[in-house]
Automatic annotation (TrEMBL), chain A:
Keywords: Membrane, Transmembrane, Transmembrane helix, Transport. Belongs to the ABC-3 integral membrane protein family. It comes from Rugosimonospora africana. The keyword Nucleus does not apply. This is ABC transporter permease. It is a multi-pass membrane protein. Its main location: membrane. One of its GO terms (biological process) is transmembrane transport.
From TrEMBL, chain B:
It comes from the Bacteria. Keywords: ATP-binding, Nucleotide-binding, Transport. GO terms for molecular function: ATP binding; ATP hydrolysis activity. Residues 1-29 are annotated as: Disordered. The keyword Hydrolase does not apply. InterPro entries: AAA+_ATPase, ABC_transporter-like_ATP-bd, ABC_transporter-like_CS, Metal_Ion_Import_ABC, P-loop_NTPase. The keyword Lyase does not apply. This is ABC transporter ATP-binding protein. Residues 51-287 form the ABC transporter domain.
Amino acid sequence: MNVGFSWNLVDDIRQMWSLQSMVSAFRAGTIVAVLGGLVGWFMVVRKQSFAGHTLAVVGFPGAAAAVWLGFGAGFGYLGFCLVAALVIAALPTQGQAGYGEESAVVGTTQAFALGAGALFVALYKGFLNGTNALLFGTFLGITSDQVLLLAAVAAVVLIVLAVVGRPLLFASIDRDVARANGVPVRLLGVVFLVLLGATAAAVSQITGSLLVFALLVLPPATAQLITARPARGLVLSVVLALVSVWVALFIAYYSPYPVGFWLTTVAFGLYLLTAGLSLAARRMGRRPVPVRV
Amino acid sequence: MPLVKPTTVRTGPGSETVPAGRDPFGPDSGRVSAVAGPVPADRAAGTATLLEVTDASVVLGGCAVWSAVNASVTEGEFVAILGPNGVGKSTLLKASLGLLPLASGRVRLLGRAPGEANAGVGYLPQRRSFDASLRVRGLDVVRLGVDGDRWGLPVPGRRSRQAAATVDRLVDLVGAGGYAHRPVGQLSGGEQQRLLIAQALARGPRLLMLDEPLDSLDLPNQAAVAGLISRICREEGVAVVMVAHDVNPILGYLDRVIYLGQGGAISGTPDEVITSETLTRLYGTPIEVLTASDGRLVVVGQPEAPAHHSDRHARS
């Protein structure tokens, strides 16, 4: 960076935001933080983290292929992730969350996806630096077109989530009863996987394919340590994701190290801090639990 | 259908198991008979038929689970579905709710086809328990029973306040006030079961369908939850159909039992049905019903799970 960090944070931020690319990075980061915090919360409750990870990894060959063929990486992530979501949804399911038994199949697909990504990278000669960005994230070179695409995806995902959120929560924690109460459990499972695919694709553009959990798992998991109330948990998850992204972008701008590292470090730090505090609170507040039936 | 129900006096949650007499109408040595709760006369008489199963059979994976089953449940009754493991007791509940198709015969639930009247039924499926890591409060689980099937965001307002009030009332009803605000995964089996019963009652059902609600509870909890279910049946006027593999914790509360076999079902009062002769006839193999000195029933020689295994998968 040509201008160094000073301890006057307001000046630092003003200077950082004088660059159009940094403004775009903050816009994109804010959008994916909101998406990741909300959709990730449901993903954690539904125990579909492995599906989320697979969807993100499948985005890698998509993005590599898109770059090789001359489309934007964003469309590659999105296209591959959505198709993968539909494929996973089509796999036969038995488990409580509608996922898990076929983990070997999904894992196999994940490995193949990474291999295919390596091929596309090789086909596109001189792409080596880009590989790092696709896998571990970047905040450089995010265009306002990309921000627009992210905003459009986010708008659709958030609207759908607002409509299906409550029955989705019901189906996630109490599948059989939800079904008996008339909730279309199977359909909601498919809808959620598509939302998760779109979210993984969006988040990948900041975090890279391998670090999506920095926004999809860490903030929701931290929020769930703090509160067991669904509404508060969702809000908190978004707040934590936003803090993680903003702080990480700020540090990454003034440091020579990649944004993916800072993002996971901030999110993981928040998680450790919260886990430590809640453990301490439990130790302090431990008293004999009355026997109840 | 008995005109006078066996009534028991409860001393609150955790009251001891009522010694299950072989004959609920026999001398009530340890129990006070007469009316212990507000049981309207017409309800006690039980008029409307809530569930009617006629000549029904279910086929899963190419094998008949059971066939030629006839059963009915009348308003306000407490009925148990009994039978050996794997005979398809849960399947009977699921078929009644329209969650599994019938191969033949007919089911009418609240006077309508299966699946059309589920809003008037509270269903508690068989389960082990919530995952210990599930960070959702007991209150939220009950609330989902009230309006969890509604689309769109829960907007603050009159409807939301009503739903919250319903949740509070239900939590009080099952005596879960002390722990309903805690994450449900951290609660004991008995506590979870009480919250799930509250959830099943959320939409003011006329019929509760409970699938092994006492399963995996310790004995004091079995007695307490059985007492709770009976109290809900009597005081709230909700008929209860309950699948059980052990009749003893609920024997003192039951109006009727439905004993399920592969080739049909026999229903009647417990002392009519749970006898060596009746069960021997139902299963076609010698069965002995013994009464222990404390009044508990022991069924000896009950057939093991039938040769087909489809039901095991169907109930998962």
